[in-house]
């Protein structure tokens, strides 16, 4: 009877994980959102779902007391962390081009708090439950924007705060793996692909993503381009299923390839 806790489930990949996992009645799914009132699609999905195996829990990743408050509910599971922040405000600036030192510092600290420290607080809160669980797997959804090698190879100089905070969570994942290897708990940072999660029509979404895809193809001709939430979720879940303790701490693509590549 696997149990899954998924963060960032109001929309995008987090919601995609909840939908796919809850389709199997043997699973119990805990969908974590930071505000139930702004998670209308999730609420509707849970109300309409036939298996009644999904439970919504409200907690902000940055609010450690809030996370601890509902932890006694659980018995054992896999954690998949989909929450993150990739705000577009100032995202196109390079590291030397911020309007002031204060805005640079504000951005870096904001991203670090949400994308690095948030998952660390969440994982720390979940460790006692991971210990008791049968699966003992914790998956952090990361991104190739957090890869130093990819940044250098592709000349991607923007997404500064996002990339640095994700590189931080990749290393945190490796630290967890080192700490808990002898207890058999697997930690994995997974890049989900370029996934069409942003709001808008197909045309609007492609208009944003295709130029980035073109730039990546200039360096990596095999780059697949934008994919659907369903495809990404299915591939990540297949990876979670087959990952073993020998791979714990790695940063990988959803097909298991080295994440420090495209
Ligand atoms: N989409 C892609 O192409 C892509 C590519 C590479 C990596 N990723 C990674 O995949 C993950 C999910 O991305 P996405 O595209 O699905 O994002 P998304 O659609 O923007 O959804 C982000 C989710 O994170 C939640 N969240 C933000 N800050 C939070 C906090 N402090 N505490 C709790 N929840 C918080 C949001 O909740 P609210 O509704 O409350 O804001 C939302 O549910 C992220 O880690 C992202 O870095 C995505």
From TrEMBL:
Domain of life: Eukaryota
GO molecular function, one term: oxidoreductase activity, acting on the CH-OH group of donors, NAD or NADP as acceptor
Cross-referenced SUPFAM superfamilies: NAD(P)-binding Rossmann-fold domains
A Pfam entry, by short name: adh_short
PANTHER family for the chain: CHAIN DEHYDROGENASE (ATSC), PUTATIVE-RELATED, SHORT-CHAIN DEHYDROGENASE/REDUCTASE SDR
Protein name: NAD-binding protein
Species this chain originates from: Schizopora paradoxa
């Amino acid at each position: 009877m696997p149990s899954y806790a998924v963060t960032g489930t109001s929309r995008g990949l987090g919601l995609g994980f909840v939908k796919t996992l809850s389709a199997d009645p043997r699973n119990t799914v805990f969908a974590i959102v930071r505000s139930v009132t702004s998670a209308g699609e999730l609420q509707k999905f849970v109300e309409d779902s036939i298996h009644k195996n999904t439970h919504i829990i409200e907690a902000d990743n940055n609010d450690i007391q809030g996370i601890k408050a509902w932890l006694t509910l659980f018995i054992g599971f896999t954690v998949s962390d989909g929450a993150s922040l990739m705000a577009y405000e100032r995202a196109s600036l390079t590291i030397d081009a911020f309007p002031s030192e204060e805005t640079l510092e504000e951005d870096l600290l904001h991203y670090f708090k949400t994308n690095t420290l948030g998952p660390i607080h969440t994982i720390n809160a979940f460790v006692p439950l991971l210990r008791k669980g049968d699966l003992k797997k914790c998956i952090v959804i990361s991104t190739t924007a957090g890869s130093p090698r990819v940044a250098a190879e592709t000349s991607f100089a923007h997404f500064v705060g996002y990339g640095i905070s994700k590189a931080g969570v990749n290393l945190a994942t490796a630290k967890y793996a080192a700490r808990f290897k002898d207890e058999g708990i697997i930690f994995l940072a997974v890049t989900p692909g370029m996934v069409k999660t942003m709001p808008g029509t197909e045309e609007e979404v492609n208009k944003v993503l295709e130029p980035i895809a073109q730039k990546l193809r200039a360096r990596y001709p095999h780059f697949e381009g934008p994919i659907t939430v369903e495809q990404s979720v299915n591939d990540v879940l297949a990876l979670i299923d087959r990952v073993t303790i020998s791979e714990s701490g790695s940063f990988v693509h959803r097909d298991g390839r080295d994440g420090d590549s495209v």
